[in-house]
Amino acid sequence: MAQVAGVDGCRGGWVVVTDEVAFVCPDFGAVLAELGPHTVIGIDMPVGLLDDYAPGGRLADRTTRGLLPGKKSSVFPAPARSCFGVRSLDQARARDCRINQQALNLLEKIEDVDARMSPVLQERVYEVHPELSFAAMNRDRPVLSSKTRGPGRADRRALLEREGLAIPERPRPYREVKEDDVLDACAALWSARRIANGTAVRVPEPPPVDARGLRMEIWW
Asked: In this predicted model, what pLDDT tens digit does every residue of 60-71 receive, in sequence order?
C-alpha cells in the first residue's frame, strides 16, 4: 500500500501523523515537502471552496451534517473564497462576508491549503472529517462525547487502538499541539489508509467541482 499520512491544524501550524511518527510543520507547503510526492494525505481542512456564500456551506458540508446526528455542530460551513483576508467578525460584517467564529478561527489555514491545491494535487490530498471517521470506526454511530475532554479523548483513543493504529506521542512543544489534534490526525490517517486501499467512502457522490476545478467532497 502507498505511504499514508493524516494532517490536522494545530496552534503551531499542522500536526502530521504517519505510521511511524508525529511531527509539526509550520505551513501546508512544508507538510507537502516533508511527506514527498507519493504520500496519500488525509487532511482535516476544507479542500475545494465556493466563491460566494451559500446557506449551510457546500453540499459536502450539508450532507456530512446529516450523517452525524448529535454532532452536527462539528461540521462548520466551509467559508467562501470571498471571505479570504477577513480576520475578525467585525471585518466580516463590514465586507458583508457571512462566516462563523469556528470557520474564522481556521481561515488562515484554509487559505494556506487553498493557495497550494490543484486538481493534480487533489489526486493524493483528500479532505476528511475526523468525526465521520470515528463514527465509521464506531459501527456508524457518532461519538457524542467531547473530544476536548478526558472521556471523549479516551473514547476516540480506544477506537483508534481497536483499528490497530499506534497513537504516537504528542510532539513537543506541547503548548503548540493538543492531544485531540493528534487524535484527529490519527483519524485522518485511518481514512487515508482506506483511500489508498480503495475502501473509503465520500460524500456527495458524485461531487461538484469548484471554479478552480477542485472537487468539493469529504472522505472517510
From this structure: 999 999 999 999
Question: Against a cut of 0.70, is the pTM above it?
Answer: yes
Q: What is the pLDDT of residue 1?
A: 64
Task: Report the Cα 88 to chain-centroid distance in Å.
Answer: 22
Question: Within 10 Å of residue 61's Cβ, how many Cβ atoms?
Answer: 20
Output the nine-digit C-alpha cell for 21.
511518527
Q: Which three cell numbers stand for residue 77?
A: 460551513
Question: Hey, which residues does 13 pair with through a beta bridge?
Answer: 10
Total tally of structural domains belonging to the chain:
1
User: In angstroms, how far is the first alpha carbon of the chain from the final one?
Assistant: 17
Question: Does residue 93 fall inside a structural domain?
Answer: no
Residue 20: the pLDDT is: 84
Answer yes or no: is 134 within a domain: yes
Residue 129, domain extent: 4-45+58-68+116-219
